[in-house]
Amino acid sequence: MKKALLALLVIAGWGQPLLAQKKTSGNPIFQGWYADPEATIFGKEYWVYPTYSAPYNQQVHFDAFSSTDLVNWTKHDNVLDSSNVKWAKRAMWAPAIVKKQGRYYFFFGANDIQNNEATGGIGVAIADKPEGPFKDYLGKPLIDKIVNGAQPIDQFVFKDKDGQYYIIYGGWGHCNIARLKDDFTGLVPFADGTTYREITPKGYVEGPVMFIRKGKYYFMWSEGGWTGPDYRVAYAVGNSINGPFKKVGVVLQQDAAIATGAGHHSVIQIPGTDEWYIIYHRRPLTETDGNHRVTCIDKMEFDKDGYIKPVKITNEGVGARRIK
């Protein structure tokens, strides 16, 4: 009788819970060395697609993570690997993903090309589900040349108000923008006949991100060296996708008491609200290996004039937030 009563009390919440419930996500939000996170929302689920942070010759696959509340995450192993992309041999990183007409398009960089004779660049894979498996869509890179000094890496895919999709990309301190064909099989020239436009703001190194808030175009990027403590995120604001984009300031950076190298991020907005989160990587204070990076999340807020407030990086992360 006593045992039965005790069991009822535990079930009713009067006794010590068998498993403590997570109140916040904690940072990192999942275990393992992962960087360059692409975060997005599909339906009522959050998804994060990061780089598997390892030496380039081992960096030949992607895992994904999903959550319904930002706190509890499920790992999806090997959503794409080099066995499904015959031209990709090493250094697969910094994915971007778009859902269009029921299919999922996964953009990625591969091979870390250093010149226009090398094979590699930005590729596209496709799947019917967000967890894949993804397979090579084109059989070759979408962008395989160094144009305007921009190494073809760190692509971000942006849908403008008129429905046109753009690819914004570039390493080595240069950023290009190009228009995508409707089926993502190639690029469409601008009205003036050019295919690539350079939109590099002052301080840009890599990792572009763009979003629209209250009619303004926010262009974000990473600065500094990715292996160093001063890696950080800066931004500009423009009135259209064409800018001009003049740097406003730095909004995400290291905190010597918490972590270093906070950068290469993405941004999500809770649908129907003005609630925003920044998902990024950073290096724990205990680590010196350049590849030892972890994926984290914190809130991103705006002041009354629409400027982004400096982000406070935390160990706690964020509280549970389901999508209604």
Tally of strands: 20
Secondary-structure element series: HEEEEEEEEEEEEEEEEEEEE
Distance between the termini: 43 Å
Mean pLDDT: 94
Q: Counting H and I runs of at least 4 residues, what is the number of helices?
A: 1
Q: Strand fraction band?
A: 35-45%
What are the segments in which pLDDT stays under 50 over at least 5 consecutive residues?
1-19
Q: What structural class should be given to the helix and strand makeup? A: mainly beta
Helix proportion of residues, in percent?
under 10%
Shape: globular
- The oligomeric status of these chains comes to single chain
Structural notes for this entry:
By secondary structure, this protein is mainly beta. The protein contains 1 helix and 20 strands. A hairpin with a 6-residue loop joins strand 11 and strand 12. It is globular and about 50 Å long.
Offer a concise description of the structure:
By secondary structure, the protein is mostly beta strands.
Summary tags:
324 residues; mainly beta; four-stranded antiparallel β-sheet; 40% strand; globular; disordered N terminus
What is the element layout, followed by pairings?
Blueprint: H1 2-12, E1 34-42, E2 45-52, E3 61-67, E4 74-81, E5 93-100, E6 103-110, E7 121-127, E8 135-136, E9 156-159, E10 165-169, E11 176-180, E12 187-188, E13 197-198, E14 206-213, E15 216-223, E16 232-238, E17 247-252, E18 259-269, E19 276-284, E20 294-300
Antiparallel strand pairs: 1-2, 2-3, 3-4, 5-6, 6-7, 7-8, 9-10, 10-11, 11-12, 11-13, 14-15, 15-16, 16-17, 18-19, 19-20
